[in-house]
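Dear colleague,

Following up on yesterday's call, I've attached the two folding results inline so they're easy to grep. Please treat them as preliminary; we haven't cross-checked anything against experimental data yet. The first protein's sequence and structure tokens come first.
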Amino acid sequence: MKEKLTSLIKNSYAPYSNVHFACIVETKSGNFYSGVNVENASYGATICAERNAINSAICAGEREFSALYLMTDLDSIAYPCNLCKQTMLEFFDDKVLFNIMNTKGDMEVLSFKEVMTKIFSKGDLM
């Protein structure tokens, strides 16, 4: 999955933060859906990689998820923002496994409950 994310992250559009994310979600039916972050000069119109991937799955009729794979090009691992977490709360159960990594090879495997306790803050961008 790391190779797929490494290729996918190149499609990220992040001219304002210069921070790139790629995400792949796996559904309980065994399908995979991908997303990248897409920034906009009107910051509120920016969409995160996680929501892009989840929304792609929803558009295809999927409603049940088993795993999420997230990659960033930051020096450290970055966790989903609260807006993404709210979307996850709508569709994920506590069995969803999170594989969060950066392009340097650092990786954490976390449960849904563990991810909900993590934060994404301005410090992650510096």
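Below is the second protein, in the same order (sequence, then structure):
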Amino acid sequence: MHFDLFDLRLFVFVAEETNLRKGAERACISLGAASTRIKLLEENIGSRLFHRKPYGLELNSAGDALLHHARLVLQQVDHLKCDLREYASGTRGHVRILANTTSISSALPAALASFLARHPDVNIDLRERLSQEIVIAINEARADIGIVAGNVDTQGLEVHDFVGDELVVVVRDGHPLGTKAHTGFVETLEDHHISLAEGSALASFLPPLARAIGRSLDFRIQVNSFESICMLVAAGVGIGIIPRSSATRHARTLKLKIVALSDPWARRESKIVNRAHATLPRIAVELIRHLANFQHEHRLL
């Protein structure tokens, strides 16, 4: 059984778009050529890969299996190209990382900074996602390394501890909650909340927690940084839920009180997740080891 790399890439495009025409456009070939190539691929495998539906294409079980392996094969080819290019251009590598909000705002930047200082020819693509989305992306080979927190299913992935943090409530000096050592999330729902911008992992994480207890979360304003949240909280606009590391940093210069959250989910035990080392570029494996060692040397709490 022989597989053409172009056909595998075309198949991935079509599967992701659930539409033959859109997949063909991404592959920069005509609709007719794409149709022929997909039919030949199915003949080569001896099985159909899609259910043809009125609204588009839907992968069947054979298609699901091929999609998983095709992504891994294409990623390995991309890594091969990157590794070989270093002989011609001196480029050492490129690593894709997905991380949750808490890690991006606390320990991860320092960990990456020390790594990049020792590897000047390495580039890192760092993006923020929800932990559940990160695990899916790692399994589908759309990222090399993930930093997750909370109760997520990491079965089939390698997992290492990373630096932990916790979510806390920040309130202005003089706010009634500021007299408490800790409070429950439900008690914060009486106040206006200040949040990160829509689409951020933390802004997506909190509202479902409120809905789960039959309440709603009122975002009075959404901004682009924890610093902005703290400035607005200090001005009396509302309260915020942010990582303790950020709250402690900004409380040094602003009139804020930090109140611990008693809810179990507030403790963010971060984990490094990745596929088997054999499927990753060498530089990504080095970075995983660096991050795992970093957590032993730098504990925030």
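For the second protein, one point worth flagging: The radius of gyration is 23 Å.

Best wishes,
A.L.
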